[in-house]
Amino acid sequence: MIVVAGTGGELCVSRAMKETGEVKDFRPAAVVRVLLRALRIKWMWLGVGLMTLAFFSLLAVLSFEKVSFVVPVTALSYVAGALGGRFLLGERISRSRWIGIMLVCVGVTLVFLGKG
Amino acid sequence: MDSHKALHFKTFVMILIMIIAGPLGNVLLGKGMQSIDTTSISSTSDLLHVVGRVFASGAIWLGVASLLTFFVANLLVLSWADYSFVQPAASMAYGVVALLSICVLGETVSLLRWVGIAIICTGVFIVGRTHPRTTEQR
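YS: structure for the whole thing
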């Protein structure tokens, strides 16, 4: 649930940003305008809401689970992200990108296991 | 081909900003909060005192600024790049976190963690070779 809400939230934010259009002007005033435009898009609010839900759920779970619980959550979020990108955002994910994502998944798992 | 390179370049720059500003912000916030004693809050005035110290902490302000930079860069890059590109690419931050842990916090990083980071780097390299944007421009 945390993975779905967390990654889902990020995907919604991504969708919102795509609707504001590609940012080409990076001067501070232009950036602020883009951000304000983004705040008017429903997806942005849905995204922020989901991410907040995920954040507090994670905090709640960590209060009675070990920190190593974070490992599958984080690893799975990369897979969820790829699937979400494909089905919610219409991205085309080539085989090499999948391989790269899987490697990141494995690597992140090891990083968290290595911390314990 | 020129716009192709421009797209790759600005994607690269944004992600670089993300993977540096994110971990840096977290470390600064961590250090800032560490220097503030929150264990002896027993009244409202104690709480206000702590809040005052939080606002007075340079490390915390820098940390917040850094994290804001991370968020803004993240939002901006998502306005053109695939989420399935940015999300794995941003995991390079784990490598930066390890480096910061050693240099700023004086911690040691286990071999297993380094192996994990090496695998992440390989994965990011492979993802990085795909085109950052596979959707139509709006």
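YS: worth flagging: Residues 70 and 112 of chain A are 8 Å apart (CA to CA).
IM: good catch. Also The two ends of chain A are 24 Å apart (CA to CA).
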